[in-house]
């Protein structure tokens, strides 16, 4: 069930990216060829192991499969399971099936897929006596040279529930300059001349982070659409520009995700509730004495605005956002998110 649900979500993410590309980036008059997403379980479910060995196994050579660098590295190290070893045979058959049904002659993959792609190339050459082509692309690496991914703890997900549009936006804004230039060539649709112009503009005014902003805006738009970009921009304004107006435009879900590491409390809004009442009920302070001291000295913020009078009664639209929430902050970073019930 998990594999099937993951496949459904992956297809949804891919279709969203292709739809956003056509909607926001495709400038030619001719429409794009419709995306076709296939699940190899559709042909493996009825394909028995004996049939697979007869159809595929007789065309593959063990010495060639064992000589693949990815296999040799594992055999010389921690070892390789039979399941992992046969992966290249299954990937090769996938290509054979796609060739037979859709005349697919090109397979594209990361540099680490070269062995599997070559196995597929060999299979099609023997089984179909035809010429096909493999294309590899560089792996995306951090400044250290390490891959991005789960094992490295720096994975970026296409699913907005796993990587918020805001977090994806911030990732590109914070890139080291050399990586930003590389990523411009990998993740933008700009011609080389425009990439070089952006890099030149950055050298003239590095504080403006022109390539970083271009990447952040365009990648988020490609992955999450204009709505995702606007959500990321609202969150950026709210957090880093102390914009109360940006907070007013955010939904409850956006605020909850943005401040997902902060305590969140639900309070009943009673007539006459003051700043001090709300702060104490939300456990922003240990004692009322602490609350009075910090609030009156200017260390307490409500919806990014400094509040120095603890006895002010809460006002809707100012202290309570249109989404029925309040963002309280003690000092520079200690947030508490309050949900109000009437």
Care to describe what's here?
This protein is α/β, with parallel strands linked by helices and 342 residues long. The chain has 3 domains: 38-137, HUPs (Rossmann fold, 3-Layer(aba) Sandwich), CATH 3.40.50; 165-252, Tyrosyl-Transfer RNA Synthetase (Orthogonal Bundle), CATH 1.10.240; 262-341, RNA-binding S4 domain (Structural Genomics Hypothetical 15.5 Kd Protein In mrcA-pckA Intergenic Region, Chain A), CATH 3.10.290.10. 51% of the residues lie in helices and 10% in strands. It has 16 helices and 7 strands. The strands form 2 sheets. A 5-stranded mixed β-sheet has the order 3-7-6-4-5, with helices on both faces. The protein has a two-stranded parallel ribbon with strand order 1-2. Helix 8 links the parallel strand 1 and strand 2 (133-137). Helix 10 packs across helix 12. The longest helix is centred in the middle third of the chain and has 31 residues, at 210-240. The radius of gyration is 27 Å and the shape is elongated. The chain starts with a helix and ends with a strand.
């Amino acid at each position: 069930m998990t594999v099937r649900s993951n496949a459904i979500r992956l297809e949804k993410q891919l279709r969203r990216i292709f739809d956003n590309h056509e909607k926001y980036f495709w400038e030619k008059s001719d429409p794009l060829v419709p995306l076709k997403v296939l699940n190899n379980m559709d042909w493996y479910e009825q394909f028995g192991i004996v049939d697979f060995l007869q159809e595929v196994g007789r065309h593959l050579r063990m010495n060639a499969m064992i000589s693949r660098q990815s296999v040799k590295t594992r055999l010389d190290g921690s070892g390789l399971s039979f399941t992992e070893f046969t992966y290249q045979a299954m990937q090769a058959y996938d290509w054979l099936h796609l060739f037979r049904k859709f005349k697919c002659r090109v397979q594209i993959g990361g540099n680490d897929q070269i062995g599997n792609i070559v196995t597929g190339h060999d299979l099609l050459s023997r089984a179909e006596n035809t010429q096909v082509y493999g294309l590899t692309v560089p792996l995306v690496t951090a400044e250290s040279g390490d891959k991005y991914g789960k094992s490295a703890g720096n994975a970026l997900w296409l699913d907005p529930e796993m990587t918020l549009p805001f977090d994806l936006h911030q990732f590109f804004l914070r890139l080291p300059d050399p990586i930003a230039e590389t990523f411009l060539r990998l993740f933008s649709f700009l011609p080389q001349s425009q990439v070089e112009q952006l890099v030149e503009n950055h050298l003239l005014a590095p504080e403006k982070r022109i390539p970083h902003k271009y990447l952040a805006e365009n990648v988020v738009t490609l992955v999450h659409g204009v709505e995702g970009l606007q959500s990321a921009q609202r969150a950026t304004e709210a957090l880093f520009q102390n914009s109360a107006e940006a907070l007013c435009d955010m939904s409850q879900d956006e605020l909850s995700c943005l401040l997902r590491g902060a305590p969140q409390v639900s309070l009943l809004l009673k007539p006459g509730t003051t700043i001090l009442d709300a702060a104490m009920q939300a456990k922003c302070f240990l004692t009322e004495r602490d609350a009075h001291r910090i609030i009156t000295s200017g260390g307490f913020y409500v919806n990014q605005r400094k509040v120095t009078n603890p006895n002010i009664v809460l006002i809707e639209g100012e202290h309570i956002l249109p989404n029925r929430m309040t963002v309280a902050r003690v000092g520079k970073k200690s947030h508490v998110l309050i949900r109000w019930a009437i």
